[in-house]
Amino acid sequence: MSNLFSYIASAAPSALGDVVLTDDTGQTYSWQGLFDESARLANLLLDAGLGRGDRVAVQVEKSPESLFLYLACLRAGLVYLPLNTAYQRAELSYFLRDATPRAVVCRAEIAADIPALAEASPRVFTLEAGGQGTLRTQAAPCSTRFDTVDVAADDLAAIIYTSGTTGRSKGAMVTHSNLASNAKVLIDYWAFSRGDVLLHALPIFHIHGLFVANHCALLSGARMIWQSKFDAAAVIAQLPHATVLMGVPTFYTRLLDQPSFTRETCAGMRLFISGSAPLLVETFVAFERRIGQRILERYGMSEAGMITSNPLEGERKAGTVGLPLPGNQVRIANDEDKPLPTGGVGGIQIRGPNVFKGYWQMPEKTREEFTVDGWFRTGDVGRFDAAGYLSIVGRAKDLIITGGYNVYPMEIELLLDDLPGVLESAVIGVPHKDFGEAVTAIVVPRNGVALDSGEILARLKQLLANYKVPKQVFIVDSLPRNAMGKVQKNVLRERYG
What are the chain's domains? Predict the structure, then answer.
């Protein structure tokens, strides 16, 4: 049994009429319904001519139907390709041309543009936030019987695009065994059971919501309360009915801003988990003071799922991402890939069954990112303390994490430098209470040109997903540089932070 869906099916309760999911309208869905709807969609995709290993690109709003679609792709041996709903047409075009999906599922408003953006004439289905669309109507007459495709353990289950330092995104190839092994470890480490109710307010185009949250619940037979998006008041209203919440730091800062977020509201909650961005120590402390529980912070990435976690039982240390998960190997190495002693600061490298297969159609890049002895270079910088807890102390290549999303400055800098009147630019992340980091641009105009920061922002909003658009643009005469002529982004962070 290698198909991830087979593991999900084996975790289902004997009473398939039991509720597995409740959406934010109060509509409930049973395990039987989950099996039936995913079977219909799997049959539809195969009837449309797709076969094992074909890609299905999906850019839709969160809905129960979007979960059924993901499960249908697993069942049919297809490769699921989630795309951020904020991506604009130019960004979509790159992903569609690179991955060459045989099918695209999107909102009706952009469906007509897909053939031109993709150049490969994929089948196009629509799916709206309420579940309506051609995907649902065309699947309605399909059979609810479907034999899950027998795949190899290293067959692809998904391709997750990550930001590229040169502006070119990389597609991380994630296998069925990568996902299954990581889910089983997390279920055990975080003690998930059929008695749990996961409050799911995360987006599902990101591994946090798509893999970590869904898999922990489904592979343990737990129930989920699905919210289409995070709303602090709506989350608080559902907390008395839940046992676990997974979120990004922004969730917790916004909850703490609500007077109705109290110990009494959280009396039935056993676990609050945070990830996708650094959790400020002040948030950790304020949360414990208010609720009487410590947030469990963990560390993961698209290429490996979850890597480390603070313990369920035992000390959860503020400012750390915990201990390596069972079966995961983590080391700190210098620039020559030599392991450093405890306390040494260096590159975080990992190895284990959770580590991805490589980058889609980038064999050279894949080779570059792995050491000779088989460790993956995460690009993050960290150190272990004497107790074995990992702290992330920096990020290589100037990665910015804002609201849980990765942003690489180079992509934005290339667009800025191409704008009329711009001589050069630098993009940095500065501390932000709500988002962890705020994308900030520093722009140098050409001689005699008067630039307007508002006009620059307006143009970027047409070209980039909203979370990549700088919160502020500063117009300056020049950028600070070192003796080698390299822009000193550390100086900029100090100046504008």
Answer: 4-229 (3.40.50.12780), 272-397 (2.30.38.10), 399-496 (3.30.300.30)
Token representation of residue 220: 């343990």
Could you read off the pLDDT of 204-256 as tens digits, one per residue? 999 999 999 999 999 999 999 999 999 999 999 999 999 999 999 889 999 99
- Which residues does residue 125 pair with via DSSP β-bridges, in sequence order? 105
**What b/e readout covers 404-430, taking b as 16+ CB neighbours within 10 angstroms?**
bbbbbbbbbbebbeeeeebeebbbbbb
- Predicted TM-score (pTM) of the model is 0.86
- Based on its alpha-carbon atoms, the radius of gyration of the chain, rounded to whole angstroms, reads 23
CA atoms of 425 and 438, how far apart (whole Å): 16
